[in-house]
Amino acid sequence: MTKRPTVVLSCSVLTDLLGKRLPPAVPVEWMDITLHNTPRKLAAALQDRIDAVAEPSTILVGYGLCGNGLVGVKSREHTLIVPRTHDCVAIFLGSHQRYVERFFASANTYYLTKGWIDAKDEPHTDYLDYVRDYDEETADYLVDMKYKHYRKLCMVGFSQEELDSCRPRAMEIAAFCKERFGMEYEETIGTTDLIEAMVRMPERGDADDTEFVVVPPGGEITTEMFMRPGEGVPQPIGRGES
Length: 242
Description:
Elements: E1 6-11, H1 15-19, E2 28-31, H2 39-51, E3 58-62, E4 79-83, H3 89-93, H4 96-105, E5 109-112, H5 114-118, H6 123-133, H7 136-147, E6 152-157, H8 160-181, E7 184-189, H9 193-204, E8 212-215
Parallel strand pairs: 1-2, 1-3, 3-4, 5-6, 6-7
Antiparallel strand pairs: 4-8
């Protein structure tokens, strides 16, 4: 890749994980965390931000495929670098391989992180919001439709200290999920390997890195770009494994 300025467009759930590892001079825009709930809105919002970058740049995109929410996004005159992951859970776990290993070991897992807890993007708050906006009967129906297929709730932290600090709220969410859906609770420590590799990509200029999708100028993101040998076409699921 030709040396260009680096710009970051990322979901705000990665503010701590990615933001702390960027060089101070790199421009970054943290996008609304709720966009992943509506893939078409995510694609449109991301395209708007890409189109607003005036100078041809290398743009680090802080998303996974996210329910096919990135499909159709065009690079224009820029180069896009995107983690080759089905959703951002793999980014927190540290690699696509670890995501796959966890999927086969324990399918139907819903993940929490500090970012999602801080943003109140989790089952307990969803239920309270539904009760506020509708009524209890409707809230019961909506939350069941969204979460009833999950069997485990997993809190991902990047240190024991982070897990400890998040645990009080995580346990409140876990108690709700246990009572309502029978979800078991567990914790795991992720790694920063994938994010650190992403930050290094503009300097490396390695378009053949299997951990990333590199979209050259004039290109467009497709589902097939996220396929790996032996895998089928990624399905448009939300965060977690279902």
